[in-house]
Amino acid sequence: MAQPDKSSSFPEIVELNVGGQVYVTRLQTLTGAPNSLLWTKFTRSSPGDLPKDSKGRFFFDRDGFLFRYILDYLRDSELVLPEFFKERRRLQKEADFFQLPELSGRLAEGSKDSPYAEDSGDPEETELPSPATSSSSDRNLSSPPGASSGFITVGYRGTYTIGRDIQADAKFRRVARITVCSKISLAKEVFGETLNESRDPDRPPDKYTARYYLKYNFLEQAFDRLAQAGFHMVACNSTGTCSYGSHDPGEDKLWTSYTEYVFFR
Length: 265
Known about the structure:
The protein is α+β, with helices and mostly antiparallel strands. The chain is built from seven helices and nine strands, in the order E-E-H-H-E-H-H-H-E-E-H-E-E-H-E-E. A six-stranded antiparallel β-sheet has the order 6-7-5-4-9-8, covered by helices on one side. A three-stranded mixed β-sheet has the order 2-1-3. Strand 4 (151-162) and strand 5 (171-183) form a beta hairpin. The chain is flat, with a radius of gyration of 23 Å.
């Protein structure tokens, strides 16, 4: 017995949170590929059946950057990728997850002829060992053989407070976001999948960017990756300002700082 169509219980305009990236699209787009995962979710389920984030958006724990291409395909039934696109294999995995066999087949066929296919050994697809699991013999500061030289600047804006009682514990270094400024190819080599490229996507590897940031907020994790890739810190600088939570000077002091660390290999 066929299940009833429940798409009418969803709004015409749907908000999604895919891996932290927010998308707004039509319900008609999401249900445009029959028997796909999104078609099933939004025609055979009710809104209350699907997981949501804190703001009520339907949540999917997938690659938020690559989902834009999934949506493009659902809109036009065409596969149009940037000239320097090098994540076909990852996008194919997303197509398989969302049960889009035709898109997956096109990606598999295109990967055979693409000079930017992931199996070509491009640094972006190199699996970098986790700092927690790599052996001590891997943790050396020598540059890998044949590694290209260059600079990477890591920056963060942090805040901390000091209470009225100077002896009380301070809340230290609340890091909002760690930014990465460098040549595209270097940033991808060092940080791999932990790099969020959503603010500056589809850039050629020989260009530079100041708009990448990391998917985690631990500076030491970034430093470990840089050290494993043979980078040395050569400079750093920091600025800071102080303000009060209110006009009462007896209130907690809020310090805001911006710090940059420059690494070279």
